[in-house]
Amino acid sequence: PIIGYNDIFMSEPAASSNYHSLQVTARRRFARSVQFGLAWTWSKAMNYADFDNGAVSVLASPRYWNYGLSTFDRTHNVRIDWTWELPKARTPYRALNYGLNHWQISGITSMISGEPLGISWTNVTAIDITGTASQGARVDVTGNPVLPKGERTFSRNFRTEVFRRPAVGTFGNSAPTQIRGPGVNNWDIVVMKNLPIREQIRMQFRVEAYNAFNQTQFRTLDTAARFDNAGNQVNTRLGEFLSARAPRILQLALRFYF
Question: HSE-up of 144 (CA within 13 Å, CB side)?
Answer without folding.
Answer: 3
